[in-house]
Specification:
By secondary structure, this protein is an alpha/beta fold. Strand 19 and strand 20 (440-445) form a beta hairpin. Helix 3 crosses helix 6 (187-193).
C-alpha cells in the first residue's frame, strides 16, 4: 500500500509538536522544582520506586527520599512528614496484601480531607489497586450503588459514614480512616502493627477512578491510567506559578478531580498540604497567616463564602504570603472574580475543565483583569475548538459546542460509554465562544439550553446577570414547561442579608439588561441553593422542587 506523503508529513509535524511540548513541560518542571538535580544514589532509588509502583505509588516514596522530614501534611492531628507518610502507606499496603488484596482489585475511599485519605490512596497504589474515590456528599443509596458497580474489594471510610454503608461487606474488609473510637479495624492500628518496608512490586499498575458529580443524574465512574505526558503538570505550570517546597491550603475535597490533582501536584513539588475535614473560611484565613501559605485551592463557592466575611474581616488577617488562589469545579461568577481581586490582589487563577476532559483553559489574573467573565486561554498541550450542531468548526466570536483534546483525558465511563467526540476531540458538555484575544467564554450547558418562543436561552446568562445584582448573593435558573412559549426559565434567588428585593423587581432587572424572552416566568426566593460537596448547584433538586 502506498502512503500519502501528506499523511507522513502531517504525522511528522504532530510528533515534532508533541516533542516540543514535552521539552517545554520538562523545562517548566525543572524551573518549579518538581524535577531537580539529584545525587546518583538518590536518583537510582527514585527511579527504582517509579519502576516498582508507577507514577502514583512511586510519588510518595520519591517524596520520602527527596524531602524526608519536611511536613507533607498538616491536619487536625498535627504534622506528618514525607518519610512518615511513605512508611504509613507501606504498612497499610503490606497489611492489605496480607488480607489477600490483589493488583487490579478495587479499593474504595470514602473520606474527608485528612492524612488517612492520602495514606489509603498511596497504599492502594502500591498494591496496584483500582482506587475509587467516593463522593462524601452522596446519599446512602448512591454510595451503595456506586460501591457495587465499581466492584469494591476493600473499603476505607470515616466513622461519620458508617450508617450509610450498611450491607457493604467487601471481601478484603472495611477499614476506618478517621475513627471516633480506636479499634483493630482502623488504619492507625494497621500502621502501628504493620511492616513499613517497601511492599513487593504489584503485577499491574494502579488506576484511579474519579466519579462525576451526579448533579443531573447517576454519578459515573471516570477511570484513567497513569499520565502519559508531562502535560498534566506542565500545562498547569505554564499558567500558574506553583513552586516546590511551599505551603498549600487544600480546601477542595480530594475525592474531586481538582482536589486530587492538586494534592498530587503538591506532593510532587514537596509542598506541605494543609488539610481540614470541613471548610471554614475564617479558619482558612487564620491558617494562611499562621503557615505563611503561598497557595490555596478552592471551588468557587468556597471563595464566595470567604468574601461574605467582608473586606474588613479579610484584611484583619495577614495574607501577604498568598500568591495563588486556584479555582475550578464550577463556574466562577464575574462579580465574585472582581470582588476577590479587590480583596486579595492579582492572585486568582481559574481553571476550566472537568473530570472527563482534564485541563482545557486557565484564566490568569491578567485574563480576569481584562474580562472577569472569561475562563482564559487554552493551556499548552490542549486543543479547544467550537463546533456547531453539524460538527462544523465555528469562527471566533460565534457560540457553539466546546470540544477539547489532550493526553490527560479519561478512558470512558465504567461499564461503557463515553463523551461525544469530533475530530478526536471530546465534548465538554458546554457551549461557548472565543474572543479576538483567544479567551474562552462559557455561555451555558448544552443540555440546559431551552427554546422559549423559538429562541435559544441558556440559564447561565441569566444566572450571571442576577449574581451581579447588589442585593442578590447567588442565583440558579432551570427550564420549565410553558403553555404559551413552550419553555420559560424559573429562577431561584438567594438575597443578601437585609435586601428587600421583590419578584417584580428581579424580573424588571432582567428585562432591562436582556431580551424579553430571557425574563424568568417565576422568581423563587430561597435561603440557599442545593449544592454538592464540590460546590456545584444540584439542579436536579431544583427541578424536583419545581415539579413538586
Amino acid at each position: 500500500m502506498e502512503l500519502d506523503p501528506r499523511t507522513i508529513i502531517g504525522g511528522g509535524v504532530k510528533l515534532a509538536e508533541r516533542a516540543g511540548d514535552e521539552a517545554y513541560f520538562a523545562l517548566l518542571c525543572i524551573r518549579s522544582g518538581l524535577i531537580g538535580v539529584e545525587p546518583p544514589h538518590r536518583l537510582a532509588k527514585m527511579l527504582l520506586a517509579f519502576d516498582r509502583y508507577g507514577m502514583l505509588g512511586g510519588a510518595i516514596t520519591v517524596g520520602g527520599i527527596r524531602h524526608g522530614d519536611r511536613p507533607a501534611v498538616i491536619d487536625e492531628r498535627g504534622e506528618l512528614s514525607y518519610r512518615e507518610l511513605d512508611e504509613h502507606a507501606n504498612a497499610l499496603a503490606n497489611a492489605w496484601r496480607g488480607e489477600g488484596l490483589q493488583a487490579g482489585e478495587g479499593v474504595a475511599i470514602l473520606a474527608r480531607n485528612h492524612r488517612g485519605f492520602l495514606e489509603a490512596l498511596y497504599a492502594g497504589a502500591k498494591c496496584g489497586a483500582r482506587v475509587i474515590l467516593l463522593n462524601t456528599s452522596f446519599a446512602a443509596p448512591q454510595i451503595r450503588e456506586v460501591a457495587a458497580r465499581e466492584e469494591t474489594d476493600l473499603l476505607v471510610y470515616d466513622d461519620e459514614y458508617a450508617d450509610m454503608l450498611e450491607g457493604i461487606d467487601p471481601a478484603r474488609g472495611r477499614w476506618r480512616a478517621w475513627a471516633d473510637e480506636p479499634g483493630q479495624d482502623t488504619l492507625d492500628a494497621l500502621i502501628e502493627a504493620g511492616d513499613t518496608s517497601a511492599p513487593p512490586k504489584p503485577e499491574s499498575g494502579a488506576r484511579i477512578t474519579i466519579l462525576t458529580s451526579g448533579t443531573t443524574g447517576t454519578p459515573k465512574g471516570a477511570p484513567r491510567e497513569e499520565p502519559r505526558s508531562l502535560g498534566i503538570v506542565g500545562g498547569l505550570l505554564s499558567k500558574v506559578p506553583f513552586r516546590a517546597r511551599e505551603v498549600t491550603e487544600l480546601c477542595a475535597p480530594m475525592f474531586h478531580a481538582l482536589g486530587f490533582a492538586q494534592a498530587m501536584v503538591g506532593v510532587g513539588l514537596g509542598s506541605t498540604l494543609v488539610l481540614r475535614r470541613r471548610f471554614d473560611p475564617e479558619a482558612t484565613l487564620e491558617s494562611i497567616e499562621r503557615h505563611r501559605s503561598t497557595a490555596t485551592v478552592m471551588v468557587p463557592v468556597m471563595l464566595q463564602r470567604t468574601l461574605e466575611l467582608g473586606i474588613d474581616e479579610i484584611k484583619r488577617h495577614d495574607t501577604s504570603s498568598l500568591r495563588i488562589i486556584f479555582l475550578s469545579g464550577s463556574q466562577l461568577p464575574a462579580d465574585v472574580a472582581k470582588r476577590a481581586i479587590e480583596a486579595f490582589g492579582p492572585t486568582i487563577y481559574n481553571l476550566y475543565g472537568s473530570t472527563e476532559i482534564a485541563y482545557a483553559t486557565i484564566a490568569t489574573p491578567e485574563d480576569l483583569e481584562a474580562d472577569p467573565a472569561s475562563v482564559g486561554k487554552v493551556v499548552r498541550g490542549s486543543v479547544v475548538k467550537i463546533f456547531d450542531e453539524k460538527g462544523r468548526e465555528l469562527p471566533t466570536g460565534e457560540s457553539g459546542r466546546i470540544f477539547v483534546g489532550n493526553l490527560s483525558q479519561f478512558e470512558g465511563y465504567t461499564g461503557g460509554g463515553s463523551k461525544e467526540t469530533i475530530e478526536g476531540l471530546m465534548s465538554s458538555g458546554d457551549v461557548g465562544h472565543f474572543d479576538q484575544e483567544g479567551r474562552l467564554f462559557i455561555d451555558g450547558r448544552d443540555d440546559e439550553m431551552i427554546v422559549s418562543g423559538g429562541e435559544n436561552v441558556f440559564p447561565a446568562e441569566v444566572e450571571e446577570l442576577l449574581s451581579g445584582h447588589r442585593e442578590i448573593e447567588e442565583a440558579a435558573a432551570i427550564g420549565v414547561d410553558d403553555e404559551k412559549f413552550g419553555q420559560r426559565l424559573k429562577a431561584f434567588v438567594v438575597k443578601r442579608d437585609g435586601a428587600g428585593l421583590s419578584e417584580d423587581q428581579v424580573k424588571e432587572y432582567v428585562k432591562e439588561n436582556l431580551a424579553n424572552y430571557k425574563v424568568p416566568r417565576e422568581i423563587v426566593f430561597v435561603d440557599e441553593l442545593p449544592r454538592n460537596a464540590t460546590g456545584k448547584v444540584v439542579k436536579r433538586e431544583l427541578a424536583e422542587q419545581a415539579s413538586g
